[in-house]
Putative membrane protein
Amino acid sequence: MEPRATAPSEPASLEGAGGDGAGDGAHVETVGAFDIRTMIGALIGLFGAILTVLGLVAFTAAEAAKTGGVNANLWSGLVMLAVAAAFLLWARLEPIRIVVRDNEPGAEEPHDIQAL
């Protein structure tokens, strides 16, 4: 099995991407909180925390009879918390990077769409 290729932390050349490179205002940013892995990790973590609390507080004999003595809420909540931690760790260790450039001259000037 070959090692997985990873994206470089910086693009190979910001200068060749869309301009002469001198003063084009390009820089690299991460998407941070808008990364889908962060959203998924937060939601799974929220549901995992709720199930863990329910498993610790509200495990009755009737529920034990339904599940064969296994505290399903507690175990599923703990697994969900572990999955959420994995998603958040993944988003933290390998963030999505985007190249941000300043607008070109005239980009914010109004255009007559009907003329097109």
Remarks:
- The helical segments are 36-57, 61-67, 72-93.
